[in-house]
Amino acid sequence: MTLTMSVPMPKPNVAFTTPPNYASRLSHLLSLKGYNPIWCPTVLVHPTPPALRPYLSTPNLEAFSALAFTSRTAIQSLSAAAADLEEPLLSPQGDSFVIAALGKDAELIDDDLVAKFCENPKRIKLLVPPTATPSGLVESLGRGNGRRVLCPVPLVVDLEEPPVVPNFLRDLEAKGWVAVRVSAYETRWAGPECAREVVERCERRELYAVVFTSTAEVEGLLKSLRELGWRDLKELVRERCPELVVAAHGPVTASGARRLGVKVDVVSFRFDSFEGVVDALGLR
């Protein structure tokens, strides 16, 4: 009797371009689904807690009715800014104060952070919109009626600012909110070499897919491709890796990618976490 040894199929290589603070989470999910994750960050984030501290000094936050987070990094930056404060940011009495966050980002707003805001937790209302997008957040906040909302958002450096944040602030204003923008962190291009592994894998036809989780990541990749001698991703795919699948985390990222001329093959429509885009990739 002859025994034959089965040779395991190699795992499909999937590149993803998230900044460091999201990398381990997405890498783990890709691994669980049987992919070989290849981290190629095209943007870097740097929290800037000092920019937030003036708004957190008592009683400055009392001038606001809500705090609207559109990213995990913004929550982390505010947590760092509030870490050394000895007194709660709000008095125990007063109108409800809304803290809004998207999807799994809201998990960072735990009891310890709420206690930093107010010793009376009943004054704090945590709002997690059913649709995890900035526009969904605006809809869940409802009418502002002239109230002020603090919006910790990124300062984009070395890249064009995507329309996501300007549109978010515009939509808040249209709903009657006075939106106050503050830079909670910097988003920077990762540099001219950041797309090199994507290029080399494509040239060897070793890349199954690339996953984008923000428009800035797409622009960062395209900027690096030009530095490496490619006009755009379309040219690279056509000439070196025609089977490459481009996946986007949610319709906002997909719209931004298309605006930059990138054809998107897979879009996750469950985008409160990265599980959505990984699952969508598996259905391809």
UniProtKB/TrEMBL annotation:
<dbReference type="InterPro" id="IPR003754">
    <property type="entry name" value="4pyrrol_synth_uPrphyn_synth"/>
</dbReference>
<dbReference type="InterPro" id="IPR036108">
    <property type="entry name" value="4pyrrol_syn_uPrphyn_synt_sf"/>
</dbReference>
<protein>
    <recommendedName>
        <fullName>Tetrapyrrole biosynthesis uroporphyrinogen III synthase domain-containing protein</fullName>
    </recommendedName>
</protein>
<dbReference type="GO" id="GO:0006782">
    <property type="term" value="P:protoporphyrinogen IX biosynthetic process"/>
</dbReference>
<feature type="domain" description="Tetrapyrrole biosynthesis uroporphyrinogen III synthase">
    <location>
        <begin position="25"/>
        <end position="271"/>
    </location>
</feature>
<dbReference type="GO" id="GO:0004852">
    <property type="term" value="F:uroporphyrinogen-III synthase activity"/>
</dbReference>
<dbReference type="Pfam" id="PF02602">
    <property type="entry name" value="HEM4"/>
</dbReference>
